[in-house]
């Protein structure tokens, strides 16, 4: 970053130069006999100096400031956590033809509506299950008032034995680059 005194000196040179050019225009406009061509030329010089000064001032600002998001830059999305990435992978693995809506509704990582060919709409909720949280997740999902089909990505195949859920649900296991879906109670097969 350039020296602060040097930056101030550059800014003052730019502003004093623009002020001086505007003074010439004011002097010409103050004279009743001033030549219109001279006034036009002085106005052009003032405008050019102001424009050049604005460009130089912007360059000083860009050199002096740490990078920040400004107008004209593409916004960056916050990175997803591992559970969020898994939830998106689950959605994409289903290849829904008629995806109606996708939303984030805590405590679920992802919720979405899919319309079947016969017009029936299924409500899905993705809830990754960390090892050791199976009992808590079972209670939470059992108490859910909505009729979701729960999609439960597991970290380990043995987790399915610790989840008790009397609702429509699927366990999901990652095997290599693929996701395998098991209807509740079939994960060990």
Strand content: 15-25%
Largest sheet: number of strands, sense, barrel closure? 6 strands, mixed
- Span of the ends, CA to CA: 63 Å
Strand order of the largest sheet: 1-2-3-4-5-6
User: Which percent bin holds the helix content?
Assistant: 40-55%
Q: What form results from the Cα inertia axes?
A: elongated
Uncertain runs with pLDDT below 50, 5 residues or more? none
Q: Say how many strands there are.
A: 6
Helix-strand string = HHHEEEHEEE
Mean pLDDT equals 80
The computed structural class is alpha/beta
The count of helical stretches stands at 4
Key attributes of the depicted protein:
alpha/beta; 6-stranded mixed beta sheet; elongated
How would you summarize this macromolecular structure in one to three sentences?
The protein has helices at residues 4-30, 36-64, 82-94, 134-142; strands at residues 99-103, 110-115, 121-126, 149-153, 169-175, 178-183.
Describe what you observe in this structure.
With 189 residues, this protein is α/β, with parallel strands linked by helices. 41% of the residues lie in helices and 19% in strands. It contains 4 helices and 6 strands. The chain has helices at residues 4-30, 36-64, 82-94, 134-142; strands at 99-103, 110-115, 121-126, 149-153, 169-175, 178-183. A hairpin with a 2-residue loop joins strand 5 and strand 6. Helix 1 packs antiparallel against helix 2 (36-64). The two termini are 63 Å apart. The mean pLDDT is 80.
